[in-house]
Amino acid sequence: MTAAAPLPARPKLITFDTYGTLIDWDTALRDYLQSLFDARDLKIDLASFYSDWYYLHALPTLSADFMLYRDLLRTTMRRALAAVSVTFKEEELDALGDVMAAANPFPDTLEILSELRRHVRLATISNSQKDILDLSAQKMGNPFTYQITGEVVQAYKPARPLFDLVLERAGVQPHETVHIAQSQFVDLPRSVPMGIPTIWINRQGQTLLPEHPAPTLELPDLRDVPRVLGFTSASEGTDRDV
């Protein structure tokens, strides 16, 4: 398996996954689903249902025939609900994209992005679509020089064209870039073999599966990113006791 490239000193470009890395979309979607279950007085284990939706329906669909992400959310959620003999109204399924767009950044996101953008260009490579990502970017203060979504190349991560396109637009080589992402399923399998130094933001405390390549560095959140990339000294790093 390909060894991860070392982190460059002060990279020329940092690319981010957005949802799960910068934006807490899981909480937003779970809260929305729970509200719909409660309105129907359904006693469904939300954690189990959400896991089944993502891993059994949403994730496999990323590599199937391309559809816009709002359609993907609607289609895969309908399938997951059918598996537990539940139906939602079409307007409730249609709202999933809006829920995603309205999700809030993680507590560390705004500060770290604000610090990094003082030193380096930022980009996002998102399995989303433009109208959703545009709203999320606004919540983060529009920090990205480049925003690449699946609809641009008609494919989703881990498809290579999304990564190739952002490197081409930024005019940088893989080793001059750092990719920062939370997904061992759609990010690590592409960025690491391409020779892009990769930081895994393991917010969920997952165990890395043996079939997925190891990142250059694993962190529990974003707070140490400026320091490890050489944009702050150790003494200027965030105090983890605060």
> What global shape is seen?
globular
CATH topology value of the largest domain = Rossmann fold
Order of helices and strands: EHHHHHHEHEHHEHEEH
Low-confidence stretches: 237-242
CATH architecture of the largest domain: 3-Layer(aba) Sandwich
Radius of gyration using CA atoms only: 18 Å
CATH fourth-tier homologous superfamily of the largest domain = HAD superfamily/HAD-like
The end-to-end span amounts to: 39 Å
Mean pLDDT: 94
Short description:
This protein has about 240 residues and is an alpha/beta fold. Helix content is about 40%, strand content about 10%. The radius of gyration is 18 Å and the shape is globular.
Could you give the topology of this structure?
Blueprint: E1 13-16, H1 25-39, H2 46-61, H3 69-83, H4 90-94, H5 96-102, H6 109-116, E2 121-126, H7 130-139, E3 146-149, H8 150-153, H9 160-170, E4 177-181, H10 188-191, E5 198-201, E6 217-219, H11 225-228
Parallel strand pairs: 1-2, 1-4, 2-3, 4-5, 5-6
Notes on the protein architecture:
- With 242 residues, the protein is of the alpha/beta class.
- Strands 3-2-1-4-5-6 form a 6-stranded parallel sheet.
- It has helices spanning 25-39, 46-61, 69-83, 90-94, 96-102, 109-116, 130-139, 150-153, 160-170, 188-191, 225-228; strands at residues 13-16, 121-126, 146-149, 177-181, 198-201, 217-219.
- 41% of the residues lie in helices and 11% in strands.
- The protein folds into 2 domains: 13-24 and 106-230, 3-Layer(aba) Sandwich (Rossmann fold); 25-102, DNA polymerase, domain 1 (Orthogonal Bundle), CATH 1.10.150.
- It is built from 11 helices and 6 strands.
- α2 (46-61) crosses α3 (69-83) and α5 packs parallel to α7 (130-139).
